[in-house]
Amino acid sequence: MYFLGVDGGGTKTIAYLLDEESNLIFKNTSGPTNILENGEEVFRKNLRELLYPVLKNINPKDIKSCFGLPAVGEFREDIKILRKIIKEELNIEADTIVNDVVIGWAGGNLARDGIHVVAGTGTITYGRKGNKDIRVSGWGSIIGDEGSAYYIGYRTLNEVSRELDGRKRRTDLTKLIFKKLNLRDHLDFIEFIYDPQKDRRSNIASVAKITYEIAKIGDKKALKILKESAKELALTVTTANKFLKIEKPITVTYSGSVLEKNEIVREEFIKLLAKGGYEVKPPKLSPVLGAVLLAFLNYENNGQKREDFINKLLKIYKEEEKQ
Amino acid sequence: MYFLGVDGGGTKTIAYLLDEESNLIFKNTSGPTNILENGEEVFRKNLRELLYPVLKNINPKDIKSCFGLPAVGEFREDIKILRKIIKEELNIEADTIVNDVVIGWAGGNLARDGIHVVAGTGTITYGRKGNKDIRVSGWGSIIGDEGSAYYIGYRTLNEVSRELDGRKRRTDLTKLIFKKLNLRDHLDFIEFIYDPQKDRRSNIASVAKITYEIAKIGDKKALKILKESAKELALTVTTANKFLKIEKPITVTYSGSVLEKNEIVREEFIKLLAKGGYEVKPPKLSPVLGAVLLAFLNYENNGQKREDFINKLLKIYKEEEKQ
């Protein structure tokens, strides 16, 4: 039996295939697979590009698969539609189709009870206890995604706009943002935000890095935005656990640029959650290996085999981390 | 001499032409003329459609004109570029080109010292004292436009999203919004917000009407959003006057759906400003007649003639209001 894990995303899609001895025999990357954002044709094309090279040599019946895809849970009959497309394009049964935050959780805490927070350009939180699970936040940049890089960027640019037109007292924030973004005046500022050449969402999210740099050199407004973002992210965790009621200590894992790279947000996030008995930990496996693990678990849940399989995955992950 | 006023917008564009006896001899409407949003070709086409029917019969040299257009002040060399296009398309000199908020002010307070707030889908505030003028807010829906219909809609939908996923306690707000928007569940909610068939900005702004209805029947969260929006709008006025220092009483006029139709926002706005010696009044003339007035004033500023001209404009406006 082979185990296939797919980690879909708005930018790229990753696939890993393990053979019966749990050896990684194939990995590949293709373009985005958010069916709502990129459309069905792009979704189909990137699935084909991702998996054609390996599927021609393997009997589809020998594959147990898990697809972690964006947009799952966000439109009607999602699983049915996605399963049909996967069958048409790849001739395999998609045994498990979940939102990509679920494979983040599975990789993060080896599919054990716990809560996983994705905080990159967008944000979404997923928690599981036994068969109970819950999603919090993740409504997208238009309505929410509080605590994400988009949110940090938006809050920062909003603050600058208020300083520029006099609604707030001019502080170093505007001076520093203008310098870092290489802006001369308010026309450059408007052009940066509304530039039709750039993807607006990633463009605004890209400011979050600068907010972090500025906060590190002591800017109080930038620091406040980051601390409030951490508070928003922590709120998604405590909200998830209000429903799940996992016993303490509650393991919280994370992925995405904000919690991985922004130490101010991460430390505040850890501090806020520590009070409630939450233990924040870096993920044990990448999301794509989380998908492989779910493909395995949904096929085989024998305790001993499970531990062996997980050990193999941890070894694969460790070796990749070294590279 | 003829006086031409043009009121451009993101949805439609209006033109009025008055003859030397200040009679309204022509009016016409065409599509949007936001050169940044709609592009140069649409801008050119709608200008032609708007004014071709009348310009073929009049000597261009006999026309004094004022164009109030969106996007003025938002890109480099705006006036130069727009003047060139107007000359190419219509063969007339655009004597005055200003942002459409400026003709709102001119119509609102007959081009006298004061502050004008536009609060429709977006929002922007403009104030003038003598030769000094200032713009506040109006950075667009992505960054700000606090107090606009978009802002009210966004704030309302954000609140619903937090109630839906448990970050906030479920109140009647979600129940009422779901009922008014005819939504069954969170999938309908996501579909409403991200529907690619609809213009996202106007779609979200359209929720502001519902927030108003719900606030009227006593919903506390909706009421809070409206009061905070009024506070944001009032802040733009006091910010403008921090710079202008107009003597009290300071006349504040307004246009746009939020301040025209939402009585809760308008009453709170009036109340907040009353404390500082601001007198909020409905506009004396429509923006397009404000444009005609500016076309006249930039040509002729003789006191007596000015009063006669204004009286004619007020009469035209009154008659139109009756229809």
TrEMBL record, chains A, B:
Which InterPro entries does the record match to this protein?
ATPase_BadF (IPR002731), ATPase_NBD (IPR043129), Euk-type_GlcNAc_Kinase (IPR052519)
Classification via Gene3D superfamilies? 3.30.420.40
Q: Which SUPFAM superfamilies match?
A: Actin-like ATPase domain
- A Pfam family matched in the record: BcrAD_BadFG
Residue ranges of domain ATPase BadF/BadG/BcrA/BcrD type in the record: 4-295
Q: What is this protein called?
A: BadF/BadG/BcrA/BcrD ATPase family
Organism equals Dictyoglomus thermophilum (strain ATCC 35947 / DSM 3960 / H-6-12)
